[in-house]
# Entry
Amino acid sequence: MWSFSTFHSSAVVPERRGRQSWSKCDRLNQKIENTIVAMIPGNISQIGKEPTQFLIEPKTPAGASSGLELPSAERCQNLSTVAQGDIHATIGHLSDALMQKLDEGLKATLELP
# Structure
């Protein structure tokens, strides 16, 4: 399951907080101390121009569970790894419909069939 979190990224800019989606295989949670994250900026200008991005609209049924306040872009091409300790709070999760878009975006990013 992908969830939305806030985290502290001291590797980029001290005291900067960002919104990221993150996921990890449940069976690996006890073994791995890092989590893969994808950036979710409020800039939605590239939606529809790249298959690696899709819109999360929190005022729709599909986006309501995201916990986001404003329309945002899931940017599957911008993946990072962060330490679990840097993830401060989970604010929401993706609906099944948005999970399908996420799968498509990650396949496009990683050039998977």
Summary: The chain has one domain: 2-110. The CA atoms of residues 5 and 90 lie 4 Å apart. Confidence is low (pLDDT under 50) at residues 1-18.
